[in-house]
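Here's what a typical entry looks like (Endonuclease/exonuclease/phosphatase domain-containing protein):
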Amino acid sequence: MSKRNELRILSWNADGVRGKISELIDFSQHDVSVDIILLCETRLTQSIPLATPGFTCYRQDKLSNGRGQGVAILVRNNLEHTIVNMPATVNIETIGINTNYLEWNIP
């Protein structure tokens, strides 16, 4: 990957990603400038896969008790990152990553 001076992040309120996975995959494969995709309201359960070629997926699915709608983060595989342990919450769905992009991208 040629290094850029910016990190490009896309945020999408999917309002249910299940029927839109092929569109998400198509977009992620054609827009090579997006490094991280943040998804909210995925409405996925553990039995539904969310895999996008070239990206690592972290997700917190909709709870079996009906609470929450699910969130996910897709990170381009060549972007150095680690998952962040988020504190347990009752009313907020959280998921996070840490990247040292600015550190390894400085010329």
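The chain has one domain: 9-105.

More examples are in the samples folder.
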